[in-house]
Amino acid sequence: MIEPSIVKEIIPLNGSPLENALKQLEIAAEILKLNPEIHERLKYPERSLTVSIPVKMDNGQVKTFIGYRVQHNSARGPYKGGIRYHPDVTLEEVKALAMWMTWKCAVVDIPYGGAKGGVICNPKEMSLSEKERLTRRYTIAIAPIIGPYQDIPAPDVYTDAQTMAWIMDTYSQLKGYREPGVVTGKPVNCGGLLGREQSTGRGVALCVREATKVLGIKFKNATVAIQGYGNVGVYAALILKEMGAKIIAVSDSKGGIYSKSGIDPKAALSHKQKTGSVVGLAGCETISNEELLTIECDILIPAALENVITKSNASNIKAKAIVEGANGPTTTEADEILNANKVLVVPDILANAGGVTVSYFEWIQNLTRESWSEETVNKKLEEKIVNAFYQVYKWSQELKRPMRLAALALAVNRVAEAMKMFGFGS
Ligand code: NAD
Hints:
Blueprint: H1 17-32, H2 36-42, E1 47-56, E2 62-73, E3 79-86, H3 91-107, E4 113-120, H4 128-142, E5 151-155, H5 161-175, H6 196-215, E6 223-227, H7 231-243, E7 246-252, E8 255-258, H8 265-275, E9 285-287, H9 289-293, E10 299-302, E11 321-323, H10 332-340, E12 344-346, H11 348-351, H12 354-368, H13 374-399, H14 403-421
Parallel strand pairs: 3-4, 3-5, 6-7, 6-10, 10-11, 11-12
Antiparallel strand pairs: 1-2, 2-4, 7-8, 8-9
Helix pairs in contact: 1-3, 1-14, 3-14, 4-5, 6-7, 6-12, 6-13, 12-13, 13-14
The protein binds nicotinamide-adenine-dinucleotide.
């Protein structure tokens, strides 16, 4: 049985990623009284592939890299998940990330299962042509298990639209025809999607708007503080301003800025582009990243790193809601404090799902050879995110649990229901 202390159960982010992922699954299983046979099956990936990748380096020597592709669950559709290039990639980590992708796709109700890939390498030390040869050889190695109806990779840490173009091209050469639907996150001129770049920030902005509604805060001029001014933070700021909210603080790795009367996100962006940081924007006070987190505001958006909201600052947070743009910005202890203080936390799995949602739109377009306008993409994204927000909110009310736990339970339940229909579980 679940302990009455709700938030302690939320996910102890202190084991290895796989231990955490398995613990989360266990918690959801307890809440849902999940069929043990289905629970058992969900602990393991359906398939995990390890490949060795020989690459001729620029100095003429051949170096062998190790790569993985893990497919966690396909009950709701083809596997979906990014590929990361990083020296610290491990099979265990990739397994955990693949499981999280299963839940993320299920929360926003897109017809995919979860997967993840990774190659142990240091892309910062590799030339562009070395990265191209690595990517093409890795694609050949995993080609038997990927495909538009099988498993659709996307960019992740240190991979990008260029990497996806190489994968698509290599896969297409193997097949003998052009197959854009094998990956998403491609450049727009080879099957990519208009609006992809803004999509995660847009999803965050939509969650902010809905959070103000459920909290009874007026959205017009609601005050917002954003930590991290990269892809997610910048677009969240631009879109929120356009929608009528007031951005009063933003930050990057070099520090933050604050203005009670509001910051123009475009001006902050061009200042960052010119000087390397938002710090120093005319008319703003300089603040530290730590100060930004505890500033008086309606909504706080962590959009930089993990584990920034901790037991040492959570009780000083004055925001009425936290919308998690970043992955894993809040520790378990902080979650407990925020819950006690009635701060609404919109969890990462929902708040930053805009990117994977529009990946799904890109894939539909590729399969149907259609091309949607950016307005259509944004409208469909809004529908998906807003629906998911209220489904999670409703589960949270009914279960009397925070939204983080409700999102997880909702996702696991959706996957389990599909598995039951296929006969996994007596
Ligand atoms: P990014 O690299 O574009 O931007 C990160 C920003 O964080 C930069 O402005 C950087 O200066 C800032 N930063 C770094 N260290 C900081 C510090 N100590 N304090 C304050 N700011 C700091 O990254 P991104 O794509 O915007 O991703 C941000 C987060 O969102 C990550 O957790 C990522 O996993 C998550 N996320 C991103 C996407 C996406 O589509 N980009 C999707 C889902 C989740």
